From TrEMBL:
Signal sequence range: 1-25
Classification of source organism: Bacteria, Bacillati, Bacillota, Bacilli, Bacillales
Keywords: Signal
InterPro entries: Lipoprot_YkyA-like, YkyA-like_sf
Domain of life: Bacteria
Protein name: YkyA family protein
Organism: Salinicoccus bachuensis
Key word Signal present: yes
Coiled coil location: none
Length: 212
């Protein structure tokens, strides 16, 4: 009789451990999804900041042209346009941190193992994370090059040998670089939408599993 009770207890304990393992895997996945959502929000804030600063750059540049006769504030780095560049560089650093956090979530999700969680839904999130982080790295790298080009351009306008040709060619070069960055931004928008959809699919599946 005691042997039967012990075997029964062992069986119950094993079942509880299995259920606990499933529950933990679901909770870990839900936590990862919450962290991913938080990073998406952080990325949106950074992109919004970039857009706001970009929209102000033209008027800040015009102010320099109107108020600084010899354009010395452009060459010495004290003009507002240089502050604008540094603020955008800060937003880029935040985006790089976001990319790193998303990579960490990718790594954590690959370690989660449970038959209760849809492999297809998990892979959808992982694939989307791969795309987003890759494009974020490409975007931040290209944008940093753009900021360096803008800095060099503004500084050149304050030099003694600066001419209208310097002004015109610099504007054209900056605009050309911005076109490539805009294309990357559009691509990122699409990839973030895909990530959100994959996130929603997996989240719904986890909720259904938890309610069973």
């Amino acid at each position: 009789m005691f042997s039967h009770c012990r075997n029964t207890a062992v069986g119950i304990t094993a079942s509880l451990l299995i259920l606990s393992g499933c529950s933990n895997a679901i909770e870990e996945t839900q936590t990862s999804l919450s962290d991913i959502e938080a990073q998406q929000e952080a990325a949106i804030q950074s992109f919004t900041q970039l857009a706001d600063l970009e929209s102000r750059l033209q008027s800040e540049f015009e102010t320099v042209l109107e108020e600084d006769e010899d354009l010395s504030t452009l060459s010495d780095g004290s003009a507002q346009v240089h502050t604008n560049i540094e603020e955008r560089r800060g937003a880029l650093e935040a985006l790089s941190e976001t990319s790193g956090e998303l990579l960490s979530q990718h790594e954590e999700m690959t370690q989660i193992d449970s038959d209760e969680i849809s492999e297809e839904a998990v892979n959808g999130v992982l694939d989307s994370l791969d795309s987003v982080t890759g494009s974020l790295d490409e975007f931040t790298s290209a944008y940093e090059e753009q900021l360096s080009s803008q800095t060099a351009y503004f500084e050149s306008l304050g030099q003694d040998d600066s001419s209208y040709e310097t002004f015109q060619k610099g504007i054209e070069a900056v605009n050309d670089e911005m076109e490539g960055i805009r294309a990357l931004r559009i691509q990122l928008d699409e990839e973030f939408v895909a990530l959100e959809e994959a996130h929603s699919t997996l989240s719904s599946q986890l909720e259904e599993t938890s309610n069973e």
